[in-house]
């Protein structure tokens, strides 16, 4: 086969494929479960599984060392979003104690072609991100909670992901998910 | 392999493992194929809107093997064969979803799960070009695999 010059924008095709594939699995989950809460949970679980493996990839790529405070972690999370999803969320709304912050996105590649039907307002469409963050932080011995406070799909101006540091996990077997 | 590709690989394997755990042995494949189908269909809808129309079946297949494949699977299909009667065989000597799994026949039993999404992707892509087909996969030794495309006579 003769090699033709590629007329397609590889990066764009890839990100669209990713978006579409994610959309396809969300809609499959909506078919599989009757309850939207269960879909949220399943997305979170899938994200967790991805997160625990992705952190290895991240550490290998960046040579990142251990973080000594949450601000350092936040910078690394920001950088990870840039690497994996091509977006740079803003770090905002630090709590006074410095144990909570928000990631604010102007655009979210997961929701690029998405509109939520009115009756699915409880669906956390991008919940996989929460799971992925939780899973990857757990592998570096940080127990965090992560949830959406704003979502563009629900008419908010930006998408805001809140992250709360709970505790440092001790040098032991990382706690299982359940 | 770039970071974004890693992400897609991981999402793909999560989807496979979810669907396999969810459904009974013989069912899982069809849902995976369907997911691939809808992704392929939509993706082609988007990426070909600026491209000139293809006239021949072979040209479309070539497009799938070169441009489309190199976007999604980071390389072109290594070999495309046809009997000129609607049967095409795509050889990929290092299929992306297998390359991290095994080099040889270990895990061969679970290999089809990881190719089914792609079968659907090809079928969906072709469908949007107006070609109905049946796509099957043949894996003898990972990471290489062969996709068999049987074009169905058009109904119109």
UniProtKB/TrEMBL annotation, chain A:
| Keywords attached to this entry | Endoplasmic reticulum, ER-Golgi transport, Golgi apparatus, Transport
Q: Provide the function of this protein.
A: May play a role in vesicular transport from endoplasmic reticulum to Golgi.
Cellular location(s): Endoplasmic reticulum; Golgi apparatus, cis-Golgi network
Transport as a keyword of this entry, yes or no, is: yes
Q: What is its main location?
A: endoplasmic reticulum
Gene3D superfamilies xref list? Trafficking protein particle complex subunit 3
Q: Which family does it belong to?
A: Belongs to the TRAPP small subunits family. BET3 subfamily.
Query: Which species?
Result: Sipha flava (yellow sugarcane aphid)
The organism sits in which domain of life?
Eukaryota
Q: Which InterPro entries match?
A: Bet3, NO_sig/Golgi_transp_ligand-bd, TRAPP_component
Name of this protein? Trafficking protein particle complex subunit
State how it assembles: Homodimer.
Q: Entry's CDD domains?
A: TRAPPC3_bet3 (cd14942)
An example GO BP is: Golgi vesicle transport
Write the gene name.
LOC112689290
Cellular component aspect of the GO annotation:
endoplasmic reticulum; Golgi apparatus; TRAPP complex
From TrEMBL, chain B:
A GO biological process of this protein is:
endoplasmic reticulum to Golgi vesicle-mediated transport
Top-rank taxon, per record: Eukaryota
User: Subcellular location, in the record's words?
Assistant: Golgi apparatus, cis-Golgi network
**InterPro entries the UniProt entry points to:** NO_sig/Golgi_transp_ligand-bd, TRAPP_component, TRAPPC6/Trs33
Family of this protein: Belongs to the TRAPP small subunits family. BET3 subfamily.
What is the official name of this protein in its record? Answer: Trafficking protein particle complex subunit 6B
Quick one: where is this thing mainly located? Golgi
Organism listed in the record: Sipha flava (yellow sugarcane aphid)
Q: Which GO terms describe its cellular component?
A: cis-Golgi network; trans-Golgi network; TRAPP complex
